[in-house]
Design a protein that fits this description.
The chain has 360 residues and is mainly α. It is 75% helix and 1% strand. The protein is elongated and about 135 Å long.
């Protein structure tokens, strides 16, 4: 009985050794494997354990082997574990393969120092390359400057032609405009009505039984109201004329904007073509950038030239604006009506003031 207990207690260290083995394989084996391991150890693998003392160590005669090439198994109770599959499932094969495939980084040998001759040759080649690039950029820059100048001349000629065509059609329409004619005639009719009304009111006021100061005050107020009413009608007539002329000016402004846009397009394309090349040019100078920005500056200045073509102050303008005499005629008619009304109203006003200042 004592020997059996001794054998039982001596078996426990053996199981602990098996647990250490499993941990070495970097996996935890299910608890069901432990009985199969202990049962797989046969009595023939040991000495007669009945003769062993408590201090004896039991060592099995055979153990499972570990290796990636072979197929290691733990068997017992007809159960079997494929350790190769076990390693693969845990990714141990990949780790081992990565360790085996590791290679030392290659060492690049230092480059030999550049000699004075080599440095001079490299600098010479670089200077030749920079000179070649500069010549190419400057040639293209000159081409863009010429193209910009040519486009400005084309835009000026095209703008004059477009304005003349537009103005001829507008002049014919404006001169025969029924709306403008009605506005002028209506203003003249209203002016005559106000003058006659003021004359009749003055005649009636003279016959009324009122004090002189009261009559004079009433007369001044009536004259002022007549003047204000005429001014309102005058604004309406001018608005009618201006609305049609404003429509013509808007069409002209569109033509001016089109001419300017064509010039700006050439300047912008030139800057796009040259900008990056100047930026990467080794010997680029302040003067180079001034010349680069001058493309857009010339384009912006052309806007003033285009406006001068429209208003007739440009030196290249030779044809007269056909709208000018028509507008002058309309303004002259309006001016005649204004002068006639103001002259007659002043005369009537003085007549009333003399009448009411001489008697009560």
């Amino acid at each position: 009985m004592t020997e059996a207990v001794t054998a039982s207690t001596e078996t426990e260290p053996f199981l602990s050794a098996e647990s250490v083995l499993v941990e070495t394989l970097r996996a935890t084996v299910h608890s069901s494997v432990v009985p199969s391991v202990t049962e797989g150890v046969h009595s023939s693998d040991y000495s007669d354990y009945s003769t062993l003392s408590h201090d004896s160590v039991i060592i099995p005669t055979s153990q499972p082997t570990v290796g990636s090439a072979g197929r290691a198994t733990l068997s017992g109770n007809n159960d079997e574990i494929d350790m190769g599959a076990f390693y693969a499932e845990l990714g141990l094969d990949e780790d081992l393969g990565a360790l085996n495939d590791y290679e030392e980084p290659s060492v690049v040998p230092p480059q030999p120092a550049e000699t004075e001759e080599e440095r001079a040759e490299r600098q010479r080649l670089k200077a030749e390359e920079t000179a070649r690039k500069r010549a190419d950029i400057e040639a293209r820059h000159s081409k863009w400057e010429q193209e910009l100048q040519a486009q400005m001349e084309r835009s000026t000629t095209e703008l004059q032609t477009r304005l003349q065509t537009l103005r001829k059609a507008a002049a014919a329409e404006l001169s025969s405009s029924a709306e403008i004619r009605d506005a002028i005639e209506h203003l003249a009719s209203e002016a005559e009505k106000y003058i006659k009304g003021a004359e009749i009111y003055l005649k009636n006021l003279k016959g009324e039984n009122r004090k002189r100061e009261e009559k004079l005050a009433l007369w001044d107020r009536v004259v002022q109201k007549v003047s204000n009413k005429f001014t309102e009608r005058l604004h309406v007539a001018k608005a009618t004329v201006n609305s049609q002329y404003k429509g013509i000016l808007e069409l002209e402004s569109r033509e001016v904007a089109t001419a300017i846009a064509k010039v700006q397009d050439v300047a912008e394309k030139g800057q796009v073509d040259l900008g990056l090349d100047y930026a990467w040019l080794d010997d680029v100078t302040y003067h180079d950038w001034q010349r680069y920005h001058e493309l857009m500056e010339v384009s912006n200045k052309y806007a003033d030239q285009a406006v001068s073509v429209q208003n007739g102050t440009h030196s290249a303008v030779v044809a007269a604006n056909p709208l000018v005499p028509i507008i002058q005629d309309v303004e002259s008619e309006l001016g005649d009506i204004i002068i006639g009304f103001e002259t007659r109203l002043r005369r009537i006003k003085r007549d009333g003031e003399r009448a009411f200042n001489s008697n009560g």
